[in-house]
Design brief:
Length: 108
C-alpha cells in the first residue's frame, strides 16, 4: 500500500512517544505514553527540528486531546497519514509521468 502524502490539513496518527515536546505527552498519558497511538492529529506545517541531537525533517502538529495551543513535532517517518490534504507538501506530491510527444520536425 502506498504512503499517503502529508500537507497542511492532513489528519493522521502516531505513537505518543514520538511526539515532542514529550513532557506534555507524559502529563496527559502518564502510564500509557510509551505504547499508546494518538489518532486525529492535525498537521499544520513542516520544518527542521532537533530530535536526538540531529536536525531532522518533522511535521508540526496539533493533538486534539491536548488543547492548550501547543505545537508538537514528530519525525516524518513515524507519522501515518489517514486523511490526505487537498494540497500536499511539495516534496511529497506524487510523481507525474511526463510524456514526450514528437513534433513533425522530430519525426523526420
Amino acid at each position: 500500500m502506498a504512503r499517503l502524502p502529508a500537507g497542511i490539513g492532513a489528519i493522521g496518527s502516531a505513537k505518543a512517544r514520538f511526539f515532542h515536546p514529550s513532557n506534555k505527552i507524559r502529563e496527559q498519558w502518564p502510564n500509557r505514553h510509551d505504547s499508546m497511538r494518538v489518532a486525529g492529529v492535525l498537521v499544520i506545517g513542516k520544518g527542521l527540528h532537533s530530535v536526538r541531537h540531529k536536525e531532522q525533517m518533522c511535521y508540526e502538529c496539533r493533538i486534539p486531546e491536548i488543547d492548550d495551543n501547543t505545537i508538537f513535532h514528530i519525525v516524518c517517518k513515524h507519522f501515518k497519514v489517514h486523511t490526505p490534504p487537498s494540497t500536499p507538501f511539495e516534496d511529497e506530491s506524487p510523481l507525474t509521468t511526463v510524456l514526450h510527444v514528437p513534433t513533425e520536425s522530430e519525426g523526420e
